[in-house]
Amino acid sequence: MLEYCLNCDYEKTLELKKEPVIITVRSEAIETIEEFYKCPVCGEKFTSSLGHDALEDAYRQYRRRHNLVLPEEIRHWREHYGLTLTELSHLLEWDEATLNRLEQGALQETSEDKWLKFIMVPQNLLYLIISKPETLSTKKRKQLISQLSTNRIVVEALQRFYSILRENFSDFGERQMLGIK
Ligand SMILES: [Zn+2]
Fold first, then answer.
1. Separation of 18 CA from ligand 1 center, angstroms?
2. What pLDDT is attached to residue 175?
3. Which of 1, 25, 136, 177 meets the CB 3.0–4.6 Å disulfide criterion with 140?
4. Residue 138 is part of which domain span?
């Protein structure tokens, strides 16, 4: 934490100040609080590196307004099923970097949010795991299928359906079939 002025010879500890600030997120004005240190001698402003982050708070408010998934919700959900970043990004057909950025707090696009909400429904996750058998190890796949499935017969029918589909259409895309994107 920066406590002294690096701009002049003022040697006392700088005081932390808080001021309301308007941050524009996707052309919407969002009011939040900015924290900074201000030197009483030279007037230089220093942003605080610890604690409150105005942009992060603005994103949080924006997500609340638009009912978007929160970064920690994505991570908790992924970890709940024991999926790694690599595995989940393959299931989503995303770059691992994209998924990682969203978990770290980047603001998602509406289309990304829709796709996340879709896969976060247990039945849909099950669907994707069955339809992309190459994504997970056999052990993990079996374990998740039994964790997610309530109906054995439906699961077996789905597995047969996808293996037939794969044999007949090599460039088959689940997302097109499910009507997403
Ligand atoms: Zn100063």
1. 18
2. 56
3. 136
4. 71-177
